[in-house]
């Protein structure tokens, strides 16, 4: 079912002006636009809007929301779990602030005496830990740059990049039972490093080694990597670590 922008505004409580703004900045552009130029929102568009509103409620800037939603590593189910945890924490903090406010009213009336510490119970001006976690999972700089590079390539260029990556991975996976420090493996790993550096981000030895560690520390990476062969993620982490150490040496 497709909905007009006015219908979406009435359904969600988001103003038409805000929906137009989201479209203008590329945060939420409806899948369908009529020949007359009218926006029509699909069910998938509404799901994306819900995600945007959850993140907005948690204090995420629009720029960061866009980076998260566009990240290749973005996982909606994981995001919903993170949002639930964050909202529960926010509710708990608001409850503490309400109690502080009620006690302050009583203190002003002389009914109770609050300590200095009690007067500030519930206030928290630290950075949003959930935003930091979301950025680390889905919005890191390397991912942002890589995605922009892919977008600039167009569909045909993206297809070629995908084929090159698949070919590299299959060749490396065939070597996974060999010594990761061997010359043949290190030569192939060097090609993988060069491939990554051509995707819009220069991987320093530390960053390259860190990426290899991510392959085995994040089960999503491990699961996808090991589709090329059992133990492939561990092999890549070891080989990339060796190359990184040699580059630094």
From TrEMBL:
GO terms for molecular function: DNA binding; DNA-binding transcription factor activity. It holds the Pfam family MerR_1. It comes from the Bacteria. The keyword Transcription applies. Keywords: Activator, Coiled coil, DNA-binding, Transcription, Transcription regulation. InterPro entries: DNA-bd_dom_put_sf, MerR-type_HTH_dom, MerR_fam, TipA-like_antibiotic-bd, TipAS_dom. Residues 1-71 form the HTH merR-type domain. Residues 84-118 form a coiled coil. SUPFAM superfamilies: Antibiotic binding domain of TipA-like multidrug resistance regulators, Putative DNA-binding domain. CDD domains: HTH_TipAL-Mta. This is Multidrug transporter activation protein. It comes from Bhargavaea cecembensis DSE10.
